[in-house]
Amino acid sequence: MKFKHLIIFTSVLVALIACNSKKTTNSVEAEAVEQTENILPSWNEGQTKTSIMDYVNEVTDKNSPLFIPEADRIATFDNDGNLWAEQPAYFQLYFAIDQVKALAPQHPEWKYTQPFKAVLDNDMNTLMEQGERGLLKLVMATHSNNTTEEFDSIVSKWIRTAKHPTKNVNYDKLIYQPMLELLDYLRVNNFKTYIVSGGGVDFMRAFVSPIYGISSEQIIGSRVKTEYHYNDGNPTIERLPTLDFINDKEGKTLNIQKIIGKKPVFSSGNSDGDLEMMQWTASNQNKNFILYLHHTDSVREWAYDKDSHIGRLDKGLEQAKQKGWTVIDMKKDWKVIFPFEM
Known about the structure:
- This protein is α/β, with parallel strands linked by helices.
- It has 14 helices and 9 strands.
- The protein has helices at residues 2-38, 47-60, 91-103, 116-120, 124-129, 131-142, 148-161, 177-188, 201-205, 208-212, 250-260, 275-282, 315-323, 330-333, and strands at 74-77, 146-147, 192-200, 219-229, 236-245, 266-269, 289-296, 303-304, 326-329.
């Protein structure tokens, strides 16, 4: 009987150990899944999210042959259409439109002069017909003849009060929650993140630093010419009505080299205007990651690519397919788009 009891006891003990082992294994697996879900939580599970995480894990693992030292972990992001929305027109254009209306009493001639007349008549079709030259007139009239401090104050006030014409929320609410998470994820892994945008550098610096967690010196954009004046001990920098540099297409690579001084290893954009930046990053001998955002969600945001007058994506999308770059399908890959949807 004693031998029989010993056999029963041993069988129960083995069963308990096996059960606990299974529970431990299941717990570890569940914990691993939970940790993965906590990374980029607004991203759906799939190839896009996995590719990003695999890349970061590979280049930050000191035992990996693909390890990249922290000093070389440079990540560049376009802004319009990549970190925040850009339809039906760039946010900076809406700022210029609002400024034209605010300044109109000082310029009675604008009632009869394009492109200002189109703005005052709320005629967006005619305004768009003015082309780049007409839009440049708007920008020069509304972004200059003031100091850097005055311009910063004007933009900061506008962003607190202005509403997007179709979404009817403040412009700073139309940032992409999944991209905010990506910026944070990269910084946690000791990447240095930069904005490299065609937008005006001082326009962006006025308010995006706290939104994105990117300091003003890491924001690179187009700029107007400026002049320094001492003013008897009250120095100012005056903004002039002349373009100094357009930070678009090849201009992005030139400014990256001039200001950052290193090739990025990670680049993210959404249009053909980012293609040269992507190509420059892809030429880095370190393992690199190229990420294009494709706007495919006509319900929650907008769907557009090669036929769009804003954020046109044609050559970039084709090259992404040829080179095997990662392309975000907004509709498929993102659980939410804007923070207020959470």
